[in-house]
UniProtKB/TrEMBL annotation:
Homodimer. This is Magnesium transporter MgtE. The keyword Metal-binding applies. GO terms for molecular function: magnesium ion transmembrane transporter activity; metal ion binding. It is a multi-pass membrane protein. The lineage of its organism: Bacteria, Pseudomonadati, Pseudomonadota, Alphaproteobacteria, Hyphomonadales. The gene is mgtE. The keyword Coiled coil does not apply. Residues 216-272 form the CBS domain. SMART domains: CBS, MgtE_N. Its main location: membrane.
Length: 460
C-alpha cells in the first residue's frame, strides 16, 4: 500500500475516488491495519476521506468504522452523508461518540446527537461536562430544520465600551474556546442583547484604541431560533451573508449561523424541491429496493387515480372516437404538448415562490405573463399541428379542431401552471410537493375535453 496517492493536492485534482486508493483502503480493512487506515484518512481532506469511505460497500464501510473506533476523526464523521453517518454513529462505541461531540462545534454535535436513540443519547450526554450538555440539550429542544438546530452556540461577543485592542486580546486569551470558523464579533449590552456587529476585516483595519461602539453596524437580518431553515437560507441569499446572529424573543444573543451550514441547506432545499416536483424522494447508497418502493408507490397511486379521471373524460366521447378513428391517433399529441407546457410553467413558478419572487403585484404580473406566453406558444404549435393533421388526414375541419384545442390547452396549461402552486401556497401546502399532480391532471382534462368536445360538435 502506497501513501503517495493520498496527497491533498492530488485529491483535489480528481473529483472521484482514486481506484488505487480504494483498493488500498479495502486491503487495510481486510488485514485489520488500523494504523495505516487511520493515518491515511487523517492526511486527506475530511470531505475527500468521507467520499472514499462512502465508495466502499455498506458492509465494508461499517467494518472500517468498527476497526477505526475512536480513531475516526470527528471532522470526517460530520462530512458523511446522512445514512452513512447514522451507520457510523451506531457502530462507534459511546466513548468515541462522546469524544467526537467534544471536538465538534455545537451545531455539528447536535447533528450527531440526532442520529442516536433516546436512551443512548441520554447515556452519552451524562458523560459530558454540565455546560456542554446544557448547550447541546438546548439545541435539540428546537424543531428540526429550524435556525435553532443550525446555529452554533460558540461565538465571540464583547460589550460596546471595549476597544478594538481589548477585543483582539480577549479573542487570543480564550484560544481554543473560539469557534473554528467565524467572521464577525457581536456587540452586546449588559443584558446580553445584541446591539451591533463588527466584521473581522473592520476589526483588523481599525486602531487598537477605537471603541467597538464607533465601528459597529446594525445587523442586516434578524434570525430567531424557531425560524424555518428555508427562510434562513433566503436571508443569507438576499443579504449575501457570511454569518448571521440568532437572537431570542427578548433580543438576547443565543448563537450564530455561518455560510458553510447554509450552503448545505440551500443544496438540500433545491434538491428537495426538484424531487418533489417529480413526486420522488432521494435515493441513498444504503437504500434497499423496499425503501425505494415505499417512497414512490404512494405517488404512483395518486397518479393512477388522476389517470382514471382523464380516462373518464375520454369515455364520454367514445362514440365520436368510434366514428372518427383519427381522433384516437391525435389525442395524445394535444395531451402531451399541454402537459409539457404546464410542467414548464409549474417549474418556473415553484422556483419563484421559493425565492420569494411571487408576492403582491409580482404574482399578478406572473399570471398575465404565463397566460400570454401560453397563448403565443399555443398559436405557434396550433398552426404546426394543424398543418401536419391536414397533410396527414386531408381533413380541414379536423385540422381546425386540433389547432383550436391545442391553443386552448396551452393557455389553460399556462394558467394552471401558475395558479395551482400559488393556490397551494395560499392554503399553506408545499407547492413543490403537490402541484405536479394537479397541473398534469388539469391539462389532460382540458386537452381531451376541448379536442374531443370540439370534434363531436364540428365533425359529427
Amino acid at each position: 500500500m502506497t501513501e503517495q496517492s493520498v496527497q491533498p493536492a492530488q485529491a483535489a485534482e480528481t473529483p472521484n475516488v482514486d481506484p488505487d486508493l480504494l483498493e488500498d483502503i479495502i486491503e487495510s480493512i481486510d488485514e485489520r491495519d488500523t494504523r495505516w487506515l487511520a493515518r491515511t484518512l487523517q492526511r486527506m481532506h475530511p470531505a475527500d476521506a468521507a467520499d472514499a469511505l462512502e465508495a466502499l460497500s455498506f458492509d465494508t464501510f461499517s467494518e472500517a468504522v468498527e476497526l477505526l473506533g475512536g480513531e475516526l476523526p470527528a471532522d470526517i464523521l460530520i462530512e458523511l452523508r446522512d445514512s452513512y453517518r447514522e451507520e457510523a454513529v451506531e457502530v462507534l462505541p459511546d466513548a468515541a461518540v462522546a469524544s467526537a461531540l467534544d471536538e465538534l462545534d455545537s451545531d455539528d454535535a447536535t447533528t450527531i446527537l440526532e442520529d442516536l436513540e433516546d436512551d443512548r443519547r441520554e447515556r452519552i450526554l451524562e458523560d459530558l461536562a454540565p455546560i456542554d450538555r446544557a448547550q447541546l440539550e438546548r439545541g435539540l429542544s428546537y424543531e428540526e430544520e429550524s435556525a435553532g438546530r443550525l446555529m452554533q452556540t460558540e461565538f465571540v461577543a464583547a460589550p460596546e465600551y471595549w476597544t478594538v485592542g481589548h477585543a483582539i486580546d480577549h479573542a487570543r486569551d480564550i484560544g481554543e474556546e473560539l469557534p473554528e470558523v467565524f467572521y464577525e464579533l457581536y456587540v452586546i449590552d449588559p443584558g446580553h442583547r445584541l446591539i451591533g456587529i463588527v466584521q473581522l476585516a473592520t476589526l483588523l483595519r481599525t486602531a487598537r484604541d477605537v471603541q467597538l461602539s464607533d465601528i459597529m453596524k446594525d445587523p442586516l437580518s434578524s434570525l430567531k431560533p424557531d425560524m424555518d431553515q428555508e427562510e434562513v437560507a433566503f436571508q443569507f441569499r438576499k443579504y449575501s451573508l457570511a454569518a448571521a446572529p440568532v437572537t431570542d424573543e427578548g433580543g438576547r444573543l443565543v448563537g450564530m449561523i455561518t455560510v458553510d451550514d447554509m450552503v448545505d441547506v440551500m443544496q438540500e432545499e433545491n434538491a428537495e424541491d426538484l424531487l418533489s416536483l417529480l413526486n420522488v424522494t432521494s435515493a441513498d447508497g444504503a437504500d434497499t429496493v423496499w425503501d425505494t418502493v415505499k417512497a414512490r408507490a404512494p405517488w404512483l397511486g395518486v397518479n393512477l387515480f388522476t389517470a382514471f379521471i382523464a380516462s373518464a373524460i375520454i369515455s364520454l366521447f367514445e362514440g365520436a372516437i368510434a366514428q372518427v378513428v383519427a381522433l384516437a391517433v391525435l389525442m395524445p399529441v394535444v395531451a402531451a404538448l399541454g402537459g409539457n407546457a404546464g410542467s414548464q410553467g409549474l417549474a418556473v413558478a415553484v422556483r419563484a415562490i421559493a425565492e420569494r419572487q411571487l408576492d403582491g403585484d409580482a404574482a399578478r404580473r406572473a399570471i398575465l405573463r404565463e397566460v400570454l406566453s401560453g397563448f403565443v406558444n399555443g398559436l405557434i404549435f396550433a398552426i404546426g399541428v394543424g398543418v401536419i393533421s391536414l397533410v396527414w388526414f386531408r381533413d380541414i375541419e379536423l385540422a381546425l379542431v386540433i389547432a383550436t384545442a391545442m391553443l386552448a390547452t396551452f393557455v389553460w396549461a399556462g394558467l394552471s401552471g401558475i395558479l395551482v402552486p400559488l393556490g397551494l401556497k395560499r392554503l399553506g401546502a408545499d407547492p413543490a410537493v403537490a402541484s405536479s399532480v394537479f397541473v398534469l391532471t388539469l391539462t389532460d382534462v382540458m386537452a381531451f375535453f376541448s379536442f374531443l368536445g370540439l370534434a363531436s360538435i364540428v365533425l359529427l
